[in-house]
Amino acid sequence: MNTHRYVRAYMAGIVVPTLGLLVALSAFVTLRLILHFPVPIERAIAFPMAIVPNLWGAWNMLYVRLRQGRHWGIGLHGLLLPVLLLPMGFLLGRALGVLETTPHGVTYFGAVALDYAHWLTGVLIGMSMYYLMWKYVVNALNEILGIA
């Protein structure tokens, strides 16, 4: 019997970012349409909605494949994903004109400025969230689907 192990791994991987993007899109729509904050939603959310869930699914498939040969923690595996996503997001943000770097920090949409210390703190918090989401949520979904 074919159990479609990798399809189940892909589906378990896309759950977290898909739900997170629904929350992010709701926040963007609220900011833009209700509070009239000049955030170009279409440029900010297109990349994450198209790429991030698919990468999470493929990353979980890779974890399931690598786990057959040797075992390392799923939290560490999930922590490595931002190492791919951060440079891709940074380069795309620069290419679309959404992100500008200055000697003092980073500016998003020409409206939101962060100095490098705050930006680095945000990156570290984001990476911690990735670790926790993979360790507890994606791992639990993998166990429920019988692929852990």
Largest sheet: 3 strands, antiparallel
Helix content: over 70%
Q: Give the number of domains.
A: 1
Structural class: mainly alpha
Say how many strands there are.
Answer: 3
Any idea what the shape is?
Answer: elongated
**Strand share of the residues?**
5-15%
* Strand ordering within the main sheet: 1-2-3
Radius of gyration: 17 Å
Helix segment count? 4
Distance between the termini: 19 Å
Mean pLDDT, nearest integer? Answer: 86
Low-confidence stretches: none
- Order of H and E elements: HHHEEEH
Structure explained in plain terms:
This protein is mainly alpha-helical. The protein has one domain (5-144). Helix content is 75%, strand content 7%. It has four helices and three strands; from the N terminus they run αααβββα. The chain has a three-stranded antiparallel sheet. Strand 2 (105-108) and strand 3 form a beta hairpin. Helix 1 (5-34) runs antiparallel to helix 2 (41-69) and helix 2 (41-69) packs antiparallel against helix 3. It is elongated, with a radius of gyration of 17 Å. The two termini are 19 Å apart. 20% of the residues are buried. The model has no long low-confidence stretch (mean pLDDT 86).
Question: What are the salient characteristics of this protein?
Answer:
single chain; 148 residues; mainly alpha; three-stranded antiparallel β-sheet; elongated
